[in-house]
Specification:
four-stranded antiparallel β-sheet, transmembrane, cell membrane, 8 helices, UPF0702_alpha/beta_dom_sf, membrane, CRO Repressor, alpha+beta, DUF421
């Protein structure tokens, strides 16, 4: 038996649900995609489930789903606003970091309290390049489940400061051209012109900016250019 399927209705509701989800998540911000707590993960799953239900629901129930989706978006925004202003509420909602290793010794009670097993701990340590527990001064279990590690001073990498060496400032490079498109406002920010960039490209034998995949300039004024077909030039 072939069931009647409202293909057009599903497509329209799917597009509308996608648009709602896009707009609402933009309002929600980036919190759900960066170091989520367990609660934030559950909220994200629920929002996705509601959007899927909106797509498959009949036209009569679409706006009910949209209202439910709006509620699940607005509540985390309000909760985030209040937790920014209240230390105690933030502590209740997000929890607080917990020290689980001190001077190479694991706090077994802390692991049990947070239901964090030994295999997960060792895996997190290996991801940070720490294989010997004896090398750890402190390890902290963060609220998102990750582990931050402070190695003992004699095990940390040597820095120029340790060797009393002077270093020059190194800032972030500025992307001036991307996929053949000149980003003019960034040129203005560093007081350079479009003509200057085109001249630099011509000096390197590049006559068409569409050949350029990316062009960046660092804080020392060095221009890096990578072509779409060839390597750096």
């Amino acid at each position: 038996m072939i069931m009647d399927v409202d293909v057009v209705g599903i497509l329209i509701r799917g597009f509308a649900a996608y648009t709602f989800l896009l707009l609402f998540t933009r309002l929600l911000g980036r919190q759900l995609i960066s170091q989520m707590t367990l609660f934030e993960y559950v909220v994200g799953i629920t929002i996705g489930s509601l959007a899927a239900d909106m797509t498959l629901a009949g036209s009569d129930n679409f706006w009910d789903g949209a209202l439910a989706l709006a509620v699940w978006i607005v509540l985390p925004i309000l909760l985030g606003w209040f937790t920014l202003r209240s230390f105690w509420l933030r502590k209740i909602v997000e929890g607080e970091p917990s020290i689980i290793i001190v001077n190479g010794t694991i706090d077994k009670q802390a692991l049990q309290r947070h239901r964090f097993n030994l295999d997960d701990l060792l895996s997190n340590l290996r991801e940070q390049g720490v294989f010997n527990l004896h090398d750890i001064e402190f390890a902290i279990l963060e609220t998102d489940g990750s582990v931050s590690v402070l190695q003992k001073s004699q095990k940390r990498p040597v820095t120029p400061e340790d060797l009393h060496l002077s270093t020059s400032y190194t800032g972030l490079p500025t992307t001036l051209l991307e996929d053949g498109q000149i980003i003019e406002h960034r040129l203005r920010e560093i007081r350079l012109s479009k003509e200057w960039l085109l001249t630099q490209l011509r000096n390197r034998g590049i006559k068409d900016i569409n050949e350029v995949f990316i062009a960046q300039i660092d804080t020392e004024g060095k221009l890096y250019v990578d072509l779409k077909k060839d390597g750096p030039k």
